[in-house]
Amino acid sequence: MTTNTVSQGQNSDQTPSPLDNFRPLIVDVAVPLGSYYLFKDAFGMSTFAALAWSSVVPAVRTLWSLVKERRTNGLAALILTVNVVSLLLSFLSGDPRLMLAKDGAVSSTVGIGILVSVALGRPMMTAGMKPFLVKGNPAKEAAWQRLASGQAAASADFLRKERAFSVVWGVALLTECVARVIGAYTVPVDTMVWLGSVMMIGVMALTFLVSGGLAAGPMEEMVRAEAEAHEAAAKADVTVAA
């Protein structure tokens, strides 16, 4: 009986490798972005061609999820949407203020996509946050699964924090877009050229701090506490069985 208890505990803690945890970021984000710069800088393709070719992987991933898995691959669909928006905007030219303002379209597209994912009950930013919280630790991975599936006592609070993390990022990116558009038409063009980058860096830094304190930090603590509680309960069961 003791052997079965221990075996069941081991099976419940079996988790993907660190590479598996980071695979969504690698395949759905890093590959499309990396291929864009590879096509554009290394192969000398035009911006339009590089965007088009770098959209192949997210397009296939999105279609595969819809047809075979009957669900939407959030990250892949978002990257594909951003690429399509960028392709459409690449036709815009002439007015320098319009060129500055169109950069905000990417931020707004990402922000809207994130907020829609929250409304659909599949917070998109979770895929990027989870690997940094579980750190490839099997016990923490199992704890995350229990919290996310509603099986743990702190599940309700955990899921609220998960949604809050994505909401913070979605709102921040939309705010950055609005600020960029306003700046494009009110600030001198020469100033806005460098101010746009400063605004983006500032928004990213502030959002990391806010989302970390409001959601990621508490979620990491909940994962740790759940993992420790589960381990303690497993040890108690083994002691009783012995």
Number of strands: 0
Number of helices: 10
Q: Structural class given helices, strands, pairing?
A: mainly alpha
Order of helices and strands: HHHHHHHHHH
Report the radius of gyration as a whole number of Å.
Answer: 22 Å
Please, what is the oligomeric state? single chain
What is the topological layout?
Layout: H1 2-12, H2 18-42, H3 47-54, H4 56-69, H5 74-89, H6 96-119, H7 126-134, H8 138-149, H9 155-186, H10 189-241
Helix pairs in contact: 1-10, 2-3, 2-4, 2-7, 3-5, 4-5, 5-6, 6-9, 8-9, 8-10, 9-10
Question: What can you tell me about this protein's structure?
Answer:
With about 240 residues, this protein is an all-alpha fold. Helices cover about 85% and strands about 0% of the residues. The protein has helices at about 1-10, 20-40, 45-55, 55-70, 75-90, 95-120, 125-135, 140-150, 155-185, 190-240. Helix 6 packs antiparallel against helix 9 (about 155-185). It is elongated, with a radius of gyration of 22 Å. It starts with a helix and ends with a helix. Mean pLDDT is about 80; it is low at about 1-15.
In short:
This protein is mainly α. The chain is 84% helix and 0% strand.
Descriptive keywords:
single chain; 242 residues; mainly alpha; disordered N terminus
